[in-house]
Amino acid sequence: MPEALLTSHPFIKVALPVPMRTLFDYKVPKATALRHELQPGMRVKVPFGNSSRLGVIVALSHTSDWEHDLVKPLTSLYDEAPVISAELMALCEWAARYYHHPIGDVIFHALPVLLRKGEKAEFRTENWWFTTAQGQAFSLDQLSRAPRQQDFLKAAQQHPNGLSQQAAAVLDLAPAAGKSLEDKGLLRREPRSFNKGGERHAHQTQVPPTLNPEQSRATDHLLDHRHHFHVALLDGVTGSGKTEVFLRLIENLIKEDKQVLVMVPEIGLTPQTLKRFEVRFNTDIVLMHSNMNDRERLDAWLLAASGHAKIIIGTRSAAFMPAPNLGLIVIDEEHDTSYKQHEGFRYHARDLAIKRAQALDIPVLLASATPSYESLANAIQKRFAWLKLRNRAGNAHIPQMERVDLRGKTLIHGFSEHALASMKLCLERKEQVLVFLNRRGYAPTLMCHQCGWIAACDHCDVNLTVHKRANKLHCHHCDTQKALIHTCPECQSEELFTVGEGTEQIETQLGTLFKDTPILRVDRDSTQRKSAMAKLTQKIHEHDQAILVGTQMLAKGHHFPNVTLVIIMDADAGLFSSDFRGMERTAQLVTQVAGRAGRAQKAGHVLLQTYHPDHAAIECLCTLGYEHFAIDGLSERKSLSLPPFFHQVIIRAESSNEQEAMQLLTAMRNDLEPLFAKGVYLVGPYAAIIVRKAGQHRALISIKAAHRAPLHEATQRMTDWLEQSTKHHKIRFAIDVDPLET
Ligand code: ADP
Ligand code: ZN
Ligand code: ZN
Prior knowledge:
By secondary structure, the protein is an alpha/beta fold. It has 24 helices and 31 strands. The chain is globular and about 85 Å long. Adenosine-5'-diphosphate binds next to α11.
C-alpha cells in the first residue's frame, strides 16, 4: 500500500449490531502496523459504552464528524482479510437504505453466527494421524499386550495417507492409544484444515432427458442471456419441467467455472431437491438452511467464499452468501412468502437477489407455477422476460379441477358425500389421496356448553388451538402452551367441546372412515423432529394406497407420484379474508396443492369444497386457471391503487400499554403529514387485526405512493422522527418496506 494511504486514514467507520441507524467512528492508533492492514469488511474490536463490541469496518475515513479527542481508538483486529467483500458490503448498504434498517443489523445478518461472535474465518482444524517410518515398519506382534494400540497402529499402517480424527472415531480407535503410540515415536499427529465441512461431492449418474419444444425455447433464451443482467420469469405449471430448464442453465455456467446460487423456500429444500442436483453434477454443492448448526453454516459459508463450492443451495438468508465467481441466481418458487423476513430486518430475498445480480451484471431466473403478482406485473410490463411452460413434461397431464357445492349438504367430518365416494374409488385403484386443510391442531376453538366460555390466550387476542395428541392448548401466535383442560374454569361444567377442525382431527376421523388405509399427516407438528419429513415422505412412497392429510407444507416442492386425488376441504377460507392479498395467496396455495396430483403417468383430479361455487374468482380459477385469475386480480389491484401498482410502506408500533402505540403514530402523522410531497398517501394509524400479540398492543400506519422516491423520503422522515421520539419510551417500532402482510 502506498505510504500516503497509511497515514491518510486516521479514522474508521464501524457498523455495530445495535438498533441505531448510524455508523460509529473510531480512531486508528497512530503508531501501529494496523493502518497497513485495515480494509472495509474486516472485523474489529471497539470500545462501546462501558464494554467492548465486535464491529465491522464499513469505510476508512480522513475525517470524523465528532470532536477528534472524543473519538476512541479501536482495540484490535479480528481478520487479516475482509469477511464481507466489497460486493456484499455494497449490497448491505443498499439494503439498509432501501429497507430503512440499521446498517449494523443488516451487516450482521449477512454474517454467519460464529463470525458475529468473533470466531476465526477459517475452516476448523482436525487432527490427522500418520505412522512414522519406525511405526510403518513396526511389527504388530510386539503390541500383543496392548490390543487397543495394536488396533490403532494396524489401522494407521493401512492408511499411509493418514487417518483423520473423524475416521479414527468411525473405526472405533481409542484416542488414548494413539497418544501412547505417539509417545513411542510410532505415530505423529498433524492438524489439518477441515475444508470438506458442508461439502457434498456430487456424482453425475443421470443422463438428462431430451427437452420438449417449450423447454428448449426457454433454455435457449436463458443461454443467450447468461452473461449479463437479465431477469427471466420461468412461469410453468407444476411438473412442466422448470427444474430441468434451470439445471441446463446451471450446467453451462459451471462449465464456465462460475458459481450458482439456488434459492429455495424455507421448507422447500427436500432431500428430493438436493438429490436432483447431486445426480446431475460432478461438482461441489453446499447447503445453507435453518436445520444446520452454526459450525456447519460457517463451513458452508467458507466453501462458498473460497469459490470452491460451485452450487450453493439455500433458503432466504443465502441471498447474502459470499461467492466471488457468482454467475447466476435462481429463485425457485419465487412466489413463496418465506422469502420475506417478517421480523427484525424485513427484507425480501428475491428483491435483494435481483439487486445483487444487477450490480454483478449476471442473470436471475425466477421460477414458479404460480408467480407472485409483483413478478407477473413485471413480466407483463416487459421488465422481466416471460418464459411460459404450459404443458407437463413427459406424459403427465394437468389435473382437472371440480367444484363441490357444500350448500345444504350433510357433511361427514367436514367431507361431502361426493368427496368421500371419490376417495373410496381412488383408494380402491391403489392410488393416494391428498387432503388439504390449512389449519393444524385438533380444533381451533375450545368452548363450554353451559356458559359459552372460550379458551383464549392470555397474551394475545386469539383463541387457543386444541392439540389432543399433545394434550395441550396452544397459541399459534405467541407459542404459549397450557395443559388441555376438561373442566370449565368459569362454571366448572365438564361439558367442554371443540368447534371447527384441524389436520389432527381430520387424521383421526379418516382413521375411523378408512380403517385399513395408512393415514399420514404432514404439518408443522408432525414434522418437528429433524428427519421426520424424510421419514414421512419415505412412508408415502412405500405405500400404494394412502391418505395424506396436511397443511401448506404439502404444497411445497414434494413429488408424490401416486397421488391422483386432491381434496381442498375449505376453499373459501382465504378467498374472503380482509387482506387484499388473500385471493392471491389462496389461488397460489390451491394451484400448488392441485399440482401434486397426477404428476406421473396417472391423471389427477381435484375437488374443491366451497359454499360459493358460482363466485367469479373460484369459477375463474377452476375453469381458466391461475394465469387468468392473476391477471384479473392485477387489474383489480390497479383500479384500487394497490401494490404492485402503488408502492407501500407500513410502520408498525407496539407497546405494552394499550394506548401508547396508537398515540405515537397519531402524533407522528400530525407532525409530519403537512411536510409530505404530493402523491404520498397515509392510511391510519389503525389497530392490527389481532391487536394484542404476546402482550404487546399493536398499531400500524400505511403509506402509499405511485413512485418510490417520495415514498422513501417520507419514510426517512418518519424513521428519524420515531428514532427521536422513542429514545426514552418502551415503544418499539418497525419499518416494513413492500410489506406482505397487514
Ligand atoms: P417442475 O420443476 O416444473 O415442477 P420438473 O423439472 O420437476 O418440473 O419435471 C417434472 C418431472 O418431469 C420430473 O420427474 C422430470 O424429471 C420430468 N421431466 C422434465 N423434463 C422432461 C422431459 N423433457 N422429458 C421427460 N421427462 C421430463
Ligand atoms: Zn362454563
Ligand atoms: Zn398468544
